[in-house]
Amino acid sequence: MTQGIKDYKINDEFEGFMLIKEVRKGIASNGKPFLTLIFRDKTGEIDAKLWGATPEDEEMYQPEKVVKLTGNINEFRGRAQFRIKTIRIATKTDNVRISDFLETAPIEVEELKVLMTEFIFEMKNPNIQRIVRAFIKKYEEELYIYPAASKNHHAYVSGLAHHIISMLKLAKQLCELYPSLNKDLLYAGIILHDIGKIHELSGAISTSYTVPGTLLGHISIMVSEIEEVAEELKIEGEEVVVLQHIVLSHHGKAEWGSPKPPMIKEAEMLHFIDNIDAKMNMLDRALSQIEPGEFTERVFALDNRSFYKPTFEDK
After folding, report:
1. Which helix (H) or strand (E) holds 14?
2. Where are the strands (E) in 41-126, listed by range?
3. Residue 84's beta-bridge partner residues?
4. β partners of residue 26
């Protein structure tokens, strides 16, 4: 396996290519401008300062650019930071691609597609199944590329589909434990609940919020789109309203972004499943960056807590 940035230790020398994920401008105490550059590869991220940045530097070093770097890994306020010795934009002769540096879901796209089809095939309600199939067909390309967020959980290529499939796997087990759950409704809610992020987010590279995403949000976007798709399919009835409610309420509370709290059993369960999968993904990613016996950095989305990685193995 190729070594990535997360495999480097403090004081290690580095020479290689990285993708610029984000750029922030700043002014140093001496009054001179600098750039904070966030670099990334498939294994993780690291930030660096480009001191005395010129206007030409600001124009040259932009997000989604691949750069050739030399330098070493320093420690600053308890975090690894890259100290730049040399930096230049990658050229065609370097034979590198942006996709070489993007973190991807741990499951291949083709497998995600097969699993999605299998779960949809389990649905018995024809109206619910038709609505879900219409969305899968409509967003077939984007669904398997987009991340599930700009940061925090499943924030990588194919993260949206990976999040959905992980939730469906949880739902399948919970439906066996609690057979009173409406499997069709729960599965459909899981598949549809975050598809609005295809409109909310800019894409898998340097993910940011779009204007509709900022002004409307993925929840309201999706609630409207469910109604539109149902009208196109000439589907009327309670299924449509209930699906809209499940999407509308999946964040659980108004202060977390849901205009309505869950008022249907399947909506309540979807909220719990969504929360479990998002938090476990964040924890796994944070813990993968440290060695046994160490604490993670504080994870803002998890109440700003740090987590310990035990030294003993699970036999």
Report:
1. strand 13-27
2. 45-51, 66-76, 79-89
3. 71
4. 34
